[in-house]
Amino acid sequence: SRQYCCRKLDWSSRKISWSLPRKxxxxxxxxxxxxxxxxxxxxxxxxxRAKLLAEYGHCEEYLNQIVPKKEAMKIVKCHxxxxxxxxxxxxxxxxxxxxxxxxxxxxxHKYPILLSHQQVDxxxxxxxxxxxxxxxxxxxxxxxxxxxxxxxxxxxIMAEGKEHALAxxxxxxxxxxxxxxxxxxxxxxxxxxxxGLWHFKTVK
Length: 204
Hints:
alpha+beta, 11 strands
């Protein structure tokens, strides 16, 4: 059963300016990319929960399930200033430097409501799964479908005929501009099925 509600959300006003290295997890390997794992102090955990509530306040009820207050939180430090938040053995959110926390695909599959959904047509699926950025025509074609959202919004990349998200990305322009300009990169592909983070299933 799906673990999210069906509220209509306004993503058009959600805008966060930040940047990521391209293809952050394309060559990510646990043994080489992880530099350390540490349990966070309670004060640091409270700070992270506060940031998660600020970014995902539209589904606060589910954040209490995802990051229970009594559960110890770990931070997985990786190359390129990437940090992954874990509870128990489960990887939950990642970010670079002081950027926003983004859900891993495994978490997003459990809680699809976390992100705005942007759907590509069938022809774009193989490109998304190879790590390619999403071009505007893949979103505006008959098989594509967009939810209104502003530039720099973190989004779930869905696909025509598929139930679960293929990738997590960042809008390089607003969905309104994607429709009107209809050329160039619409979404930067940050984390996708079968990349290094997808294969990094648990943390010890």
